[in-house]
Amino acid sequence: MKRWIGNWLMGVAVLHTGFAVVVYGGVLRSMAQRGVFNTVGDDPLTGAVAWFVLFGMLMFACGLAVASLEKAGAPVPRALGGCLLALTVLGVVLMPASGFWLAFPPAIALLARARSRPAEGADLLLQGQARSAQGS
């Protein structure tokens, strides 16, 4: 099994955050000059830029976790692939002219890997919960 999904996610996160620095550098500098703490306030642009950067950091952390699992030869939970795919579809629907398209390859690859292995861990827990709900 090739290890590329975690690195792909980290690469997209770096591009995402780099884009924020280039395009919204003025907003980020203004936040830094004001001391960072409580600088978003009720300014929608500053809030959007803060979320943009925070999302990049979260995607990088997710990529680190996936890369670590890949390196250890451990399965990545199927739910992660499903959540990433759902987020990607929603992002593309809301913002077709965006980088969300870059998340399709890892989302699909995670789901394909999950299909090719027996269910375990969190997947078994979710299946057990689904069976319990069906029995009720």
From TrEMBL:
Keyword terms: Membrane, Transmembrane, Transmembrane helix
Transmembrane segments: 7-28, 48-67, 79-104
Pfam families: DUF6463
Record-given protein name: DUF6463 family protein
Organism whose genome encodes this protein: Caldimonas mangrovi
